[in-house]
Amino acid sequence: MKRSVVSVREGSPILVEHLADVQIGAATRFGTSSVSGRDAVILSVQKQPNANTLDLSNRIDAVIEELEPLLPADVRIDNHVFRQADFIEVSIHNVIEALRDGAILVAIILLLFLANVRTTLISLVAIPLSLIVAVLAMYWLGLTINTMTLGGMAIAVGVLVDDAIIDVENVFRRLRENRVLPDDQKRPTLRVILDASNEIRQPMVIATFIIIAVFAPLFFMSGIEGRLLLPLGFAFVISVFASLFVALTVVPALSYYLLPKMKQHTAERETWLVRTLKSWYRPTLEWALKHGSTVILATALLIVGALAVYSRLGSSFLPEFNEGSATIIAITPPGTSLQESSDIGEFVERKLMSHPAVLSVARRTGRGELDEHVFGSNQTELEVRLSQEGYHKEKVFDELRDLLSDVPGTVISIGQPLSHRIDHMLSGTQAALAVKVFGGNLYELRQIAQQIKAEMETVDGLVDVAVEPQVDVPQLRIEMDRDAMALYGVQVADLAENIETAFNGKVVGQVLEGQIPFDLVVRFPEDSRVNENVIASSLFATPAGPQVPLNELAKVYKSSGPNSISRENVSRKIVVQANIAGRDLGSAVEEVREKVLNNVRMPDGYFVSYGGQFESAEAASRIVFLLSLLSIGAILVLLYLEFRTFRDALLVMVNLPLALIGGVFAIFFTSGIVSIAALVGFVTLFGIAARNGILMIAHFHDLIDNGKVPVRDAIIRGSLERMNPILMTALCAGLALLPLALGGGQPGKEIQTPMAIVILGGLLTSTALNMVVIPALYWRFGARTKQLN
After folding, report:
1. In the 8-state DSSP scheme, what is residue 748?
2. pTM exceeds 0.90 for this model
3. In terms of C-beta distances under 8 Å and separation of at least 24 residues, what long-range contacts does 545-549 make, across chains too?
4. Are 237 and 219 in contact (CB under 8 A)?
């Protein structure tokens, strides 16, 4: 390279070594890294959006296994520093366990009510058949089995047997009634099964379509919540639709082949449990019909109480995940050298390794040369792998915050990998709450931000409160003198390019050593790049001919300026960020808003906005609310098509507020926080709860219109006859969710748990009240219509 010819003057070659020093130098270092206190090279693999994480991880493991024998003896590859597949595998295992346990509980409920293995098996066959259809549908559409699709199936398990239960229970009861008739009045078995199936077919179909209709909001949600909940909703809807198909085809066929062959004593009597429940239910029902006003008033008071409790519940965006790892961001003041920042990062790393729950720590200070994160040398990111054996996540995070509270001059934020990335996408920060201050003057913004930070530090539940690091840093400024440049014919672009090449360097080629390429960089010697006077006297060629020093073309001087300037919607901004611990996001934000409004003075032209998860939660809640109104309208239309009268349709709709009571109190006695997942649980609950009212009122109509039974007798008889299927379907749908409801905090169940709690609590109240309130309302309002007709 030194002997390369640049040009020839007067017959003599001018070589590179005549013009420059040629030497091997170190590339510019942008960052450092280590794993558990030992220097390391950290390689991050980012998957494509449609790639399967588990499959990709397994293929990477296979490649690493092939590489390891070729590595030097002192080099080791650790592929578990941060591995998203580990969280996914644990999550899928937990959800599959919930799916299995839910199916077992469904089988137990059916055996208790039916006390018959054949009827139980006929009902249970809907579960595997429906799930197989759902899996095949997802396969045809290119979807994958993940925690969300499995969660949708787990939530649907109890609902999948509902149609089958209703059908087989009605067939079983009609066969039992037919058996006790005199021989001359008995009907053929096939006719009994056909009539029994047709009797409940229309209300069963309408009820199932209502359940599907209420999931419509999920298919119109956007953003993070839409990406998470859409697969869940799809799996749920496909499974429920498949269960309807099974109930309409497979269940009647199995009933024909299995039920008529039962032993005589098995088929003639109801089970002990059903007889006992009916003996309790009948006097309760008669009392409710006699004291309808009292029942209606008490129910109204419960609904008002539930609404009052709901208004006092906290709110959040999505439930917190339990990923088994933590992402910790440590930021030193801007301008901190890479070496100093690396030393502080190593200090933080050692402190983290001292905690017994920490298995490993991967540290990255600054950034890699081609890193997608544009981190400065003052920022350190640590991926901490945590043990989940005997440790509670929130307690560990609190202990880590205490452990790192004495790190000098460093702003530390603690989160988790998924939540960290979600926060970054939502607000551009690494925290759940971002208070953005907008205005024209950067120094005024800094003062306002410090005031807001002081107010936020007084709010309970806010942790990791920090202002976006903005300080004035030393700068060497070069201001071009356009008049002087015009005298020498120098263009602004040419001078700027020459300055960049001289002082920052420019890659002009590559040098190959074997098969390894190295960049060939041209720039001034180091002693000419660090001294202000030398820089000012550096010579630059001009089109006019002579070389002139830089200070004749531009003004070179030392100054200071902001390390960064952030803008959003063309306005300058500065961000105060915080995480939430031990409190709901909604109430914390409301308190921050109140304190900022009352205690922080905003000059004219300056304003504050609140971003992050809170902003997304508000937007998603509005979408769910508006789309839920459309779903309720669709339910009302379907009910009208079933009953041909809005009076009866509205009577069935009473199940919605009845379900609200239990759902609200279930949240109140558990987390006390309404998240987007809980709202979706309410929407799902409304569809499931409406089924009970449809079955009951449709049977009232059948007895009055076809059986010519007096209205009051029809209400009592119809309620008693529908008690069994209503209780079975409600208990199956509710108790199947018990493994999810009790699995709060377990990986994979974070989003499904709030949904399960809402649905389980709502089904308890809607079922219990439906069996008392709906008959009382029908006797008070619906029966009069029938009598007039």
Report:
1. T
2. no
3. 548/488
4. no
Which secondary-structure segment (H or E) carries 537?
helix 532-537
Q: Which of 91, 164, 130, 98 lies closest to 735 in space, CA to CA?
A: 98
For residues 163 and 42, give the distance between their C-alpha atoms in angstroms, rounded to a whole number: 54
Distances (CA, A) of 223 to 151, 215, 323, 613, 678: 19, 17, 21, 11, 17
**Relative orientation angle of helices 147-160 and 223-258, to the nearest 10 degrees:** 40
pLDDT for 265 equals 42
| Per-residue CA distances from 305 to 196, 301, 302, 309, 586 (Å) | 41, 6, 5, 6, 21
* Six-digit token string for 405: 């509270």
**What is the DSSP track for 394-461?**
HHHHHHHHHHHTT-TT-EEEEE-HHHHHHHHHHHSSSSSEEEEEEES-HHHHHHHHHHHHHHHTTSTT
**Chain CA centroid to CA 35, Å:** 29
Which structure tokens are listed for 211?
A: 């359940």
The residue among 753, 748, 749 whose CA lies nearest residue 90 is 748
| Residue 582 zone, left/alpha/beta (φ > 0; ψ -120 to 50; rest) | left
Q: Summarize pLDDT for 460-504 with one digit per residue, the tens.
A: 888 888 888 877 778 888 899 998 888 888 899 989 998 888 888
Whole-angstrom distance, CA of residue 94 vs CA of residue 739: 10
Q: Which of 481, 619, 621, 460 is nearest to 557 (CA)?
A: 481
Tell me how far the alpha carbon of residue 287 is from its chain's centroid: 47
Kindly report, residue by residue over 289-326, the tens digit of the pLDDT.
898 889 989 999 999 999 999 988 888 877 777 878 88
Query: How many Å apart are CA 313 and CA 666, to the nearest integer?
Result: 11
Q: For tokens 């009597």, what's the residue?
A: 269
Which residues have C-beta within 8 Å of that of residue 482, sequence separation ≥ 6?
492
- Under 8 Å between Cβ of 366 and 379: yes
The two tokens of residue 784 are 């009069």
Sign of CA dihedral 430, 433, 439, 441: negative
What are the CA-CA distances from residue 435 to residues 244, 334, 518, 676, 691 (Å)?
Answer: 49, 21, 45, 22, 45
Question: CA-CA distance, 782 to 135, in Å (whole number)?
Answer: 43
